[in-house]
Known about the structure:
Distance between the termini: 77 Å
Number of helices: 15
Helix content: 25-40%
Number of strands: 18
Largest sheet: 7 strands, mixed
Number of domains: 2
Strand content: 15-25%
CATH superfamily of the largest domain: Aldehyde Dehydrogenase, Chain A, domain 1
Amino acid sequence: MRERVGxxxxxxxxxxxxxxxxxxxRNEVLEIEAPLLTKQQMQQVxxxxxxxxxxxxxxxxxxxxxxxxDQAVEVFLxxxxxxxxxxxxxxxxxxxxxxxxxxxxxxSFLKKxxxxxxxxxxxxxxxxxxxxxxxxxxxxxxxxxxxxxxxILHVWAGNxxxxxxxxxxxxxLVKSGNIGKVSSAEPxxxxxxxxxxxxxxxxxxxxxxxxxxxxxxxxxxxEMFAHSDVVVGYGSNQSLEAMRQRIPVSTRFLPFGHKxxxxxxxxxxxxxxxxxxxxxxxxxxxxxxxxxxCYSPHIFYVQNGGAxxxxxxxxxxxxxxxxxxxxxxxxxxxxEEMTAAIHWRxxxxxTSYTNSSKQVFGQTEHQWTxxxxxGAAFSPTCSNRTIKVIAFxxxxxxxxSIKPYRKYLQSxxxxxxxxxxxxWAKVLGKSGVTRITALGKMTSPESGWHHDGQFNLLDxxxxxxxxxxxxxxxxxxxxxxx
Length: 482
């Protein structure tokens, strides 16, 4: 089976070289044919995308753009559409994730980009969405308009299917030309979405491109960086640092590197009636895309003093992970991932022999591991359904352990009373955490969330101000002046 991916504007008679990426899974072999542009072709594409977006996107209203995106998302939410069927058929082969997990994950993710959510998205960052269309009065007097860059280059990671939509849709909302570089790990979805978008709104045909090149290809990256106004990069901290060194000083760089997340469970969520539900939600956050996202938990801190103890809660999570394994089997791990998982588990088992409070749940034949420990230091697991449960007394007790990870912290899944939620949020926010959500929702950020504490749209635009003095001075030259 072979599938051509990506999306390119019309380049006339140009012959486009392709690279074949091979994926094997579900007893099928899938060959992905990805467009590989020359430096000259890259220049042609960037010029075409810039020109078209200036003429088309920037002349559209934000309401029109939101409506088009909403229609494209609706196509992918329709399980009978050819685009949705293709995504459901091919993504499990490409990623190795369970078909049902892909199906549910896509629906949950795509719903965040419907019209009402996009409207909230824009209001969250800009307050007044019409700032993207024209100059509007500001409270400080004068007028302002939000102007998106000519060209945004997105360099995407492939750890979670469909994740590129966050930045691609953000780029469209600020009326910029967009070129996305897909990952070798998941090169499909962004191109499918671009095709559906252009099918709905043919006028956008030359306003975006979805391309591929091998990660770390300095020649192609340097060429694209030189033509971009903003580069949005996803990946490991090492790859982002290498990228930063090749990006011109005049080009804005928005990097999104490795982050770590965890959960906190109050003893108020640990009575005999609520503990099982809490554990179920915690386990769901672990199994969703096998902890490959920055927002996936590695540790659950569980407060002492509940009717269900922290060690018992660890057993509850182990039970729920086993139940989930029957419904959503873990993907087949690479040799490197399998080696890391075995090494991590062996280390935990060895140290449990000398630590009477430490327990390791799950046998080697299980596709998950839960470790319970008292007073352990904060330490990320090896992912792929490996989790630690650590008992604590007061939220302040966590601070010395998480402090060294301050710049890497992102999401916290909380199961706490309303009073505790806000008290804990203050403490965790000061420690570097940028998102607090419910258990069971850690892998599903709300539309318009502040990604790593930053703005999605506001960081892309520049504000153009007309000061009150300019408006007053212009009155001297009005045709109606006496």
